Amino acid sequence: MTLQWKINAPLTAFAMLFLALFLALGNWQLHRAEQKRIALAAFESSEDAVPVELSRLKHDAPMYARVTAAGHFDNAHSFLLDNRISHGRFGYEIVTPFLARGVDKTVLVNRGWVEGDPARLQRPVIAPINGEVTISGTVYRDTARMHFVATTSESVWPQLIQNLQIDALQTQLGIELIPFVIRLDQNSPGAYRAEWPMFNIGFGPERHIAYAVTWFAMALTLTIMWLLLSSNLWQLIRSKRTDD
Q1: What is the CATH number of the domain that holds 69?
Q2: What is the pLDDT of residues 102-140, one digit of tens each?
Q3: What is the SS3 assignment for the chain?
Q4: Is a pLDDT exceeding 80 seen at residue 68?
Q5: Do 175 and 58 fall within a single domain?
Q6: What pLDDT score was predicted for residue 20?
Q7: Are residues 132 and 77 in the same domain?
Q8: Domain residues for 224?
Q9: How many Cβ atoms are within 10 Å of 60's Cβ, its own excluded?
Q10: Pair 151, 66 in one domain
Q11: Is there a domain that residue 2 lies in?
Q12: Which of 9, 67, 79, 239 is the most exposed place for a label (fewest CB within 10 A)?
């Protein structure tokens, strides 16, 4: 008995479509894993780096670059970054403009997490930081390519926001902003709970590798099923087992 084909056009088109989809999803997960490996390496290498003065830092500075600045907070115009979960509790991240000495643009400073009212009846009170202070932290950018909830402007301060879209926030403030945010160190003036995990729990590079393996396994399974349904391969295998 020889291998014979019985190609079914609709079945083949279905198999090819989903094979391409599974392979694309697997490759995308591998790409995400590589991105996170690079980010993790950059984060770890920056931990011991000497902070650079904000006035000397280029606007295209890499993520997690260490930075320091002297200046004062704009206490009247803070933002509440919504839906931030810490240790299983609901809250906000406090984001306040900072006017640094020797810098012609304002920079947004993420001061960390505060607990919020789960019923949303009250908003947290933000303590003002008066006078000139020296802060230190790391460069951070919102790397999300899609924002499902747009940032909307409110009439009262602090304003509630859903993401850190610099263009939208500088429109709300009416000033030019440096195109990144400084995440405060825990010991800096004005810091709340300044804990900055690299990734959401369980979503490091390893999770993406596991997802990629799953998608590739599904692609392999689909290919095998198509082969069995489009040929007499299964009969050949059974025949060989019987002869043995």
Answers
A1: 2.40.50
A2: 999 999 999 999 999 888 888 898 989 999 999 999 999
A3: CCCCECCCHHHHHHHHHHHHHHHHHHHHHHHHHHHHHHHHHHHHHHCCCCCEEHHHCCCCCCCCCEEEEEEEECCCCCEEEEEEEECCEEEEEEEEEEEECCCCCEEEEEEEEEECCCCCCCCCCCCCCCCCEEEEEEEECCCCCCCCCCCCCCCCCCEEECCCCHHHHHHHHCCCEEEEEEEECCCCCCCCECCCCCCCCCCCHHHHHHHHHHHHHHHHHHHHHHHHHCECHHHHHHHHHHHC
A4: yes
A5: yes
A6: 95
A7: yes
A8: 9-37+204-239
A9: 8
A10: yes
A11: no
A12: 9
170 in a domain, yes or no? Answer: yes
Q: Please say if the pLDDT value at position 46 is more than 80.
A: no
Same domain, 54 and 172: yes
Q: With a cut of 70, say whether residue 48 has pLDDT above it.
A: no
Per-residue pLDDT at 200 exceeds 70: no
Looking at the predicted structure, is the pLDDT value of residue 241 above 80? no
pTM of the prediction? 0.67
pLDDT at 146: 46
